[in-house]
Write a structure and sequence with these properties.
Blueprint lengths: L2 H15 L13 H8 L7 H11 L3 H13 L3 H17 L14 H19 L4 H8 L3 H7 L4
Helix pairs in contact: 1-4, 6-8, 7-8
Length: 151
């Protein structure tokens, strides 16, 4: 079973369990489109998926968790536990957060540049010469010059 088939199967099961016909979900998705999604023959956009989940009374994350558990062949409760462990690990590592990380808007290059700036200025305040910083950090002399504090 591929991902679209598993997604369609779970959507159909939730819809039927909620007592809704395809026509009953018309405000989210037209009947023909929903039929194709449930058969695994057509993908669904994120916005339409959001609307459909609202109509079905289930969060997108829970529905997708059921799909993922089915894809890996694991009981939903065991998969939920695994996801909780992964979430805790990612939160602890700072890779996920519920607040906006404005530093991410600068991208990888921007983060690396900020890390270099802080490291260069810290080593400068410790009294290291520019070439010592170049060797220690493995950056170019131009990078050190760019972030060198003028006194």
């Amino acid at each position: 079973m591929n991902y679209l088939e598993a997604l369609g199967q779970v959507i159909r099961e939730v819809r039927v369990a909620a007592g809704l016909s395809r026509e009953g979900c018309a405000q989210a998705l037209n009947r023909d489109h929903l039929a194709k999604v449930e058969q695994g023959r057509q993908a669904i956009s994120v916005l339409k998926f959001y609307s459909l989940c609202e109509c079905l009374g289930i969060s997108q994350s829970l529905l997708l968790m059921a799909v993922e558990a089915r894809m890996v062949g694991v009981e939903l409760e065991a998969y939920r536990h695994q996801q909780e462990c992964d979430l805790n690990r990612l939160l602890g590592a700072g890779l996920l957060s519920s607040v906006i990380n404005h530093g991410a808007s600068r991208g990888v290059r921007g983060k690396r540049a900020e890390d270099n700036r802080l490291a260069i200025q810290t080593l400068q305040t410790e009294g290291l010469a520019k070439m010592e910083i170049v060797r220690r950090l493995g950056v170019s002399r131009a990078t050190v010059d760019r972030y060198w504090l003028k006194r």
